Amino acid sequence: RSMGSLLIFRGRKALGVRQYHVASVLCQRAKVAMSHFEPNEYIRYDLLEKNINIVRKRLNRPLTLSEKIVYGHLDDPANQEIERGKTYLRLRPDRVAMQDATAQMAMLQFISSGLPKVAVPSTIHCDHLIEAQVGGEKDLRRAKDINQEVYNFLATAGAKYGVGFWRPGSGIIHQIILENYAYPGVLLIGTDSHTPNGGGLGGICIGVGGADAVDVMAGIPWELKCPKVIGVKLTGSLSGWTSPKDVILKVAGILTVKGGTGAIVEYHGPGVDSISCTGMATICNMGAEIGATTSVFPYNHRMKKYLNKTGRADIANLAEEFKDHLVPDPGCQYDQVIEINLNELKPHINGPFTPDLAHPVAEVGTVAEKEGWPLDIRVGLIGSCTNSSYEDMGRSAAVAKQALAHGLKCKSQFTITPGSEQIRATIERDGYAQILRDVGGIVLANACGPCIGQWDRKDIKKGEKNTIVTSYNRNFTGRNDANPETHAFVTSPEIVTALAIAGTLKFNPETDFLTGKDGKKFKLEAPDADELPRAEFDPGQDTYQHPPKDSSGQRVDVSPTSQRLQLLEPFDKWDGKDLEDLQILIKVKGKCTTDHISAAGPWLKFRGHLDNISNNLLIGAINIENGKANSVRNAVTQEFGPVPDTARYYKKHGIRWVVIGDENYGEGSSREHAALEPRHLGGRAIITKSFARIHETNLKKQGLLPLTFADPADYNKIHPVDKLTIQGLKDFAPGKPLKCIIKHPNGTQETILLNHTFNETQIEWFRAGSALNRMKELQQ
């Protein structure tokens, strides 16, 4: 500081006055860039401060950190109606990030909007289309070859419309964001459900569908239902085998896969300071598994340390000046509070088949024996967007080094996925990668890989019962390898490494012994590793493409005969009538995630071609009529057949249809294909007991009706052979239920009520046929 501003600062501090004015002046003076890649786009803490002060004065109460950042980005803070869990907020996010699988549809929608450039800093990250087969370099070369058309489309579309492009091999979107784009107080939206990873650096980072990203890139205020705030108070400190991953594994066990729906999870308390910045990111990342809107940690010295080490000391210094706005107000109120004593927290492992089935590592072997889960671990997999930091790799290497010292290697197969090119290059330089190879590991490409089903697995046959342990975030049936009999468990990278060495779920590294090559028993010591490299990070290869200043001559080609890409046609408008005699395509039994609705893995190659990818519609969902997947009755022919074929038959014959779902329908990924596909094949409504947040919004964006039973028991009144009529659409209004007449084949009828969460803007999307159609209407 200059001497003058320092004296003002000290004088105001002595009087107990918040240093807002001084900080604002410093911000004007500093003009700190949001990232190295966008030197002319500045962090606006001054605007954040102004908006927070307006809202605090209006609400007349202390604010949580989540509220500060969210309300600090309001489009109209003076007049916005604010009620947690009730009102819809109109927000102005700072930036957009898209991964390559969802960016295809997002950019196709942006192209059809007719706008010349994106209105906010935006990036595309190539991480989803690289299949794990034999190892990093070969897998990357193969991916570049088979995905050339898609990569070319994304690169040229990025160049044309002003979007930064991270080439294949650069790393996983969330690690790249943490290293380059996230900062305390940022409001970032990303077309991937694990975007909340950025909360580890004190930002509000929210996963959305592509249509939401298009709104923000178009400069339109983004709508979000005002989140509730769940406070997680951490006391004590992490030690021994307990890791940051165990915090979220424990929270998932408490809140379940839908317990965070409609809420931001805000961590606070003295225990926070014992967790590294990348550890906080791990916790926020997997918050997606409890349905949370996002998760966030307050700004602290661990974040400052990370910003400094990643070349952003200017942002760290600015954050220090505005620290009051980057932590919760004393006395702020949470809608729910969970308290976890880190001194007492034990290593956890969650699964199989759902990420909220929590077990202490010490107990999982006994539970597995009782339940009949395979004890033998076939593969251990570390990395992914959740756990691929320098610290994660260091702790895993520390475990592996002990095994090697006793002449042991992994009994299970073992794979390592670096989170970014920077992490890969740095762990190669510092010897971690070689240690992990020496213990039996294969280092895969800097990409999502097996975590999202991009795994050409050869060691088992489909249908073979087996167990894998991963440091990933999600473990739904068939997610990693398309085998419904694979029992996948999620835990920390160091526990995965220990279990892969032992080869069994019965092993507890805290108490159990291994036998060395010399026949002597030994116990693994709790791993210890640096949270950040002692030298600077090695950036590795340059994998970033800046958008050109002049893109007027840039072409973006989509071949009309392409099997990978397809320009979008507008969906039809609502015809102004009630929806009569809707056929039930499928009544879903039990869990139905976005993986069940629109599978990933081999289907990822069609993410830019709506008609082709629609051939996976609901193929994983269980039909209540026969207990089978991808087998539904055609109401006209009375024959059973695949779900997509039946939907196409109905569409061809002008039969509109509806899906009936269970609880938390659409949990999991942010993929909007799970909404685009039913719309494309003639669906009009999805009626469930409850929805996951992102999927419900995605359905609205595409002109579908996501509706919930006013009485959840009414789910049992509807049978697959019934027809439904939805009434009240002419008077469609926020908060007003719709009527549903159930017409049974025997001629009898029942009437039930259906609730919805549409606001006025979203009702306009429905009437226009989609949010994109409505955007075009407003432009005209």
TrEMBL record:
Biased composition (Basic and acidic residues): 524-537
Pathway: Carbohydrate metabolism; tricarboxylic acid cycle; isocitrate from oxaloacetate: step 2/2
Gene Ontology molecular functions: 4 iron, 4 sulfur cluster binding; aconitate hydratase activity; metal ion binding
InterPro entries: Acnase/IPM_dHydase_lsu_aba_1/3, Acoase/IPM_deHydtase_lsu_aba, Aconitase/3IPM_dehydase_swvl, Aconitase/IPM_isomerase, Aconitase_4Fe-4S_BS, Aconitase_4Fe-4S_dom, Aconitase_dom2, Aconitase_mito-like
UniProt subcellular location: Mitochondrion
Highest taxon, organism lineage: Eukaryota
Cofactor note: Binds 1 [4Fe-4S] cluster per subunit.
Domain Aconitase A/isopropylmalate dehydratase small subunit swivel as annotated: residue spans: 583-711
Cross-referenced CDD domains: AcnA_Mitochon_Swivel, AcnA_Mitochondrial
Reactions the enzyme catalyzes: citrate = D-threo-isocitrate
Polar residues: compositionally biased ranges: 551-561
Any GO BP annotation: tricarboxylic acid cycle
EC number: 4.2.1.3
Family stated for the protein in its record: Belongs to the aconitase/IPM isomerase family.
Record's protein name: Aconitate hydratase, mitochondrial
Record organism: Ictidomys tridecemlineatus (Thirteen-lined ground squirrel)
